[in-house]
UniProtKB/TrEMBL annotation:
GO terms for cellular component: cytosol. It holds the Pfam family ThiI. This is Probable tRNA sulfurtransferase. Residues 61-166 form the THUMP domain. The lineage of its organism: Bacteria, Bacillati, Bacillota, Bacilli, Lactobacillales. PANTHER family: TRNA SULFURTRANSFERASE (PTHR43209:SF1). Coiled coil: none annotated. The gene is thiI. The keyword Nucleotide-binding applies.
């Protein structure tokens, strides 16, 4: 096994300079620190153009699993920090190659120099280190185009960093650099994917979830919370705001024509999300809508629903096909949970034939028959906020609530 001493992180989309760059790096460092907080021996050194994580014997594999999910990291490499002398470079390079070489493998040496004053240039280093390896691993062959092993040598100001791996990070921007927003999270496939994409752009999100006991079960609520737990892998802890929605749905169903049940329900959801956003200092509302997917997601429906607010309503999956959304849901680990059949509030109160082209004036007119303010006030009074950490479980725990239901 190779014993790496550090992980060297290359930053993501860092076109911005000055203060923004500083904020980016500081936020990334604190996000990395958070996901590695149970490794007290690890040291994090955020520098201007690279971040170094000194392992101090912490296990690389486990740390790697966490880093993969931190936004703002473009690429990273586990490295062995080496003295800036030819002897040291050759020695470390050979030890690394001996640890990973298997009979028949090809290799090449790839040197980069940030310190242009170093006594050897990249070509010289490539050939000298290459020769040293040929001398000690006689069967190994060089291959420039598609080598099995690439020995990467980075000559920097403070030291030389040697690695055989260049790993892809999650990309995007560190969570928290783009401000705060609320995310309308259902138990479906789309909104968890939209959440992931919002986080990827650096937006810190709080989940707003509508639930309708007794029409929806504890399981449906637990499912949305558990989905939040999966997304917390990418964000740290996420606040989950559960909003009781049954009274609003019952009232709408009782008083309004069936064709407008869905539109008016959605107007209430958006209104509530917006009030919560404002109270919590958010700047935008995210949801998982995709154009044309269902009746509530036609452009006409969006117009009739979006009417209740001027706050930006951002829809990260708006142009994606269902198959593309599913592929991403599988990649981020939410898909299997999303397809569990615990029906949420919308499925239960969905009219059989919702209007795909609702009229804005009609929606307003019908809605005016209701005590909008009172309904909103009572829903807000019933809000419950839970802070959810990465991979926290809610469905399989044998809590008393769960057993009551069985
Ligand atoms: P999803 O897979 O995200 O549920 P969907 O394609 O099933 O989306 P809808 O159920 O019509 O579509 O919901 C559209 C969007 O409205 C969701 O992506 C989500 O952002 C929001 N939404 C729907 N139901 C809820 C809910 N119970 N709580 C919070 N937001 C919801
Ligand atoms: Mg849904």
């Amino acid at each position: 096994m190779v014993k790496y001493t550090e992980i060297m992180i290359r930053y993501g989309e860092l076109s911005t300079k000055g203060k923004n760059r500083k904020d980016f790096i500081a936020k990334l460092a604190s996000n990395v620190n958070r996901v590695l907080s149970d490794f007290p021996m690890v040291e994090i050194h955020p520098k201007h153009d690279r971040m170094h994580i000194v392992l101090n014997d912490a296990p690389f594999e486990e740390i790697n699993n966490r880093l993969k999910k931190v936004f703002g990291i473009q690429t990273y490499s586990p490295v062995i920090k080496t003295e800036k002398t030819l002897e040291a470079i050759e020695k470390t390079s050979l030890e690394l190659m001996e640890a990973i070489y298997q009979t028949g493998m090809t290799f090449k040496v790839n040197t980069k120099r940030a310190d242009h004053k170093f006594e050897y240039d990249t070509n010289q280093l490539n050939s000298m280190v290459g020769d040293h390896i040929f001398d000690h691993i006689p069967d190994i062959k060089a291959e420039m185009k598609h080598p099995d092993l690439v020995l990467r040598i980075e000559v920097r100001q403070d030291a030389v960093y040697i690695s055989n791996q260049l790993l892809h990070g999650a990309g995007g921007m560190p969570v928290g650099t783009a401000g705060k927003a609320v995310m309308m999270l259902s138990g479906g496939i789309d909104s968890p994917v939209a959440s992931y994409l919002a986080l990827k752009r650096g937006v810190e999100i709080e989940m707003v979830h509508f639930f309708s006991p007794p029409y929806t079960t504890e399981k449906a609520l637990a499912k949305a919370k558990e989905l939040t737990g999966i997304l917390a892998n990418y964000a740290g802890k996420i606040n989950f705001i559960a909003v009781p929605f049954a009274e609003i749905q019952e009232t709408i169903k009782e008083k309004l024509p069936e064709g407008y049940l869905m539109t008016v329900q959605r107007r209430f959801m958006l209104r509530l999300a917006d009030i919560i956003r404002k109270k919590r200092g958010g700047l935008a509302i995210f949801n998982g809508e995709s154009v044309g997917q269902v009746a509530s997601q036609t452009l006409e429906s969006m117009t009739a629903i979006n009417d209740v607010t001027t706050t930006p309503v951002l829809r990260p999956v708006v142009t994606m096909d269902k198959t593309e959304i599913i592929a991403l849901a599988e990649k981020i680990g939410t898909f299997d949970l999303s397809i569990e059949p615990f029906e949420d509030c919308c499925t239960i109160f969905a009219p059989p034939r919702p209007k795909t082209k609702p009229k804005l004036d009609k929606a307003r007119e019908y809605e005016a028959r209701l005590d909008v303010e009172g309904l909103i006030e009572r829903a807000l009074a019933g809000i419950q906020i839970t802070q959810i950490r990465a991979n926290q479980k809610f469905l399989d725990v044998s809590s008393s609530e769960d057993t009551d239901l069985l």
